[in-house]
């Protein structure tokens, strides 16, 4: 743990701490913003550059001689998008018990495009190692939700064991005539202050949520993104790939060697009339006496096997260390059973399971803030009763799921069996519809029996009577 400025502290994972119930001074605010800018933002920018295909190879010093290819194989984007698509590609279910509160919650989630923003928040978490979701009131005093990059926002926690949120700082840098100045807001539990050029205003507005209206999302306590463990491997892969392209281009310019062959020369210069450089000739007119004239291409050394092995080793390490498999690999070719596919995705499932636990914790804290003003639901304590379920985005084995549900019939309840079917979103509603269909079938059967002709009904009675006699 290091001291930032004044009473401010920063932990090894880049978490800011401050004394409980205290407020920042101008100097302490400047210390936190400067630390975020000087120490944390460079890592965030480096990771985003990897995601955007702006790799180190593009900024390397130019070569003095020979081809100078700068190739970027953007495995970083593939890893982030695959991981985020697997964990958040299917929108999670956030529900309360059936009723008006749950209906209002679902309407609000759709109104603010909550799951789309949650997906972007998850992508930022994969890239930066953390992201921040925050709640605010719009011009019509309606509860809204959005996300912000950690490069221009952070949460300060108190220095107690519980590490409760103390303040949320969101800012932007503005270019003035002399320097860059930070301007933004500080959100405490009860107050909201504006600041400009690191000077906090004396005036404040009331925070309607009565708690810090922002929550930090992260995948692990170390605040590491999915790219952090493989950055050196990604840069090495680009370097080797570019070198391979350079060598291929260099040796593709093959030279034709002319031994003991005499070409016509320019009378003034004495040089061959043929353009040796642009036509790629090696001209050796005077060799060992008595040697026959000979024309042949200069053979190139073959180093392709070693380069391919090196690239394959780097690629395997990138996927192995990031714990995100290469879905284009031959191991995933063909139709796979659900169990076989899960084994191949085991490392990804383990990584996602940790993310889900952290995200559920953050989401509950976020909805504690959302419910506090009583607009979305009428009871602010319902945040503790939320059901939050995440679903991995996997190919669905419908036939296998149906077979599994049939096999457990009689061993578990009907509701539990229906939960095994991926296309059944609400088992209770499904049971209700099944019961309604049964009642309708019975009713239709009774109506059909009542509409039989009289002779058929009487015929049945006569048969019964004769049998009795």
What key phrases describe this protein's structure?
three-stranded antiparallel β-sheet, flat, 16 strands, 12 helices, 469 residues
What would you say this structure looks like, in words?
This protein is an alpha+beta fold and 469 residues long. The protein is 42% helix and 19% strand. It contains 12 helices and 16 strands. The chain has helices spanning 26-51, 75-88, 100-111, 114-128, 231-252, 304-322, 338-344, 346-371, 398-407, 414-419, 427-450, 454-468; strands spanning 2-3, 9-10, 16-18, 90-95, 130-137, 143-148, 153-158, 165-175, 180-187, 191-196, 199-206, 214-218, 256-259, 281-284, 294-297, 387-391. Strands 1-2-3-7-8-9-10-11 form an 8-stranded mixed sheet, with helices on one face. It has a 3-stranded antiparallel sheet with strand order 6-5-12. Strand 7 (153-158) and strand 8 (165-175) form a beta hairpin. Helix 2 crosses helix 4 and helix 5 (231-252) runs antiparallel to helix 6 (304-322). The longest helix has 26 residues, at 26-51. The N and C termini lie far apart (102 Å). 23% of the residues are buried. The model is unreliable at 465-469 (pLDDT under 50).
């Amino acid at each position: 743990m290091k001291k930032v400025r004044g009473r401010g502290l920063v932990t090894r994972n880049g978490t800011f701490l401050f004394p409980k119930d205290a407020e920042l001074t101008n100097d302490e605010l400047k210390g936190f913003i400067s630390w975020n800018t000087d120490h944390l933002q460079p890592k965030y920018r480096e990771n985003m550059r990897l995601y955007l295909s702006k790799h180190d190879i593009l900024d390397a010093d130019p070569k003095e001689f020979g081809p100078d290819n700068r190739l970027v194989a953007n495995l970083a984007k593939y890893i982030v998008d695959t991981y985020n698509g697997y964990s958040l590609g299917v929108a999670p279910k956030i529900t309360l018990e059936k009723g008006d509160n749950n209906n209002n919650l679902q309407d609000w989630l759709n109104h603010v495009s909550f799951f789309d923003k949650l997906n972007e928040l998850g992508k930022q978490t994969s890239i930066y190692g953390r992201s921040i979701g925050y709640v605010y009131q719009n011009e019509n005093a309606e509860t809204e939700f959005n996300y912000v990059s950690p490069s221009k926002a952070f949460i300060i926690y108190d220095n107690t064991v519980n590490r409760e949120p103390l303040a949320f700082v969101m800012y932007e840098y503005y270019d003035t005539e002399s320097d860059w100045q930070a301007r933004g807001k500080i959100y405490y539990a009860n107050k909201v202050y504006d600041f400009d050029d690191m000077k906090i205003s004396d005036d404040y507005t009331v925070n309607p949520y009565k708690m810090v209206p922002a929550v930090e999302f992260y995948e692990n306590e170390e605040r590491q993104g999915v790219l952090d463990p493989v950055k050196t491997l990604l840069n090495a892969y680009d370097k080797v790939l570019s070198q391979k392209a350079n060598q291929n281009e260099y040796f593709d310019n093959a030279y034709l060697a002319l031994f003991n062959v005499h070409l016509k020369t320019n009378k003034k210069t004495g040089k061959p009339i043929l353009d040796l450089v642009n036509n790629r000739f090696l001209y050796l007119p005077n060799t060992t006496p008595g040697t026959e004239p000979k024309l042949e291409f200069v053979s190139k050394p073959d180093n392709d096997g070693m380069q391919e092995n090196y690239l394959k080793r780097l690629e395997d390490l990138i996927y192995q260390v990031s714990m995100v498999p290469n879905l284009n690999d031959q191991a995933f070719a063909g139709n796979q059973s659900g169990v076989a596919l899960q084994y191949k995705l085991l490392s990804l499932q383990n990584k996602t399971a940790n993310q889900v636990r952290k995200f559920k914790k953050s989401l509950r804290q976020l909805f504690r803030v959302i419910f506090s003003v009583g607009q979305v639901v009428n009871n602010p304590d319902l945040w503790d009763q939320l059901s939050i379920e995440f679903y991995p985005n996997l190919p669905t084995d419908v036939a296998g799921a149906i077979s599994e549900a049939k096999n457990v019939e009689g061993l578990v309840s009907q509701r539990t069996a229906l939960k095994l079917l991926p296309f059944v979103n609400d088992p209770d509603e499904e049971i209700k519809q099944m019961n309604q269909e049964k009642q309708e079938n019975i009713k239709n059967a009774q109506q059909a029996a009542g509409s039989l002709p009289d002779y058929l009904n009487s015929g049945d009675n006569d048969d019964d009577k004769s049998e009795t006699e």
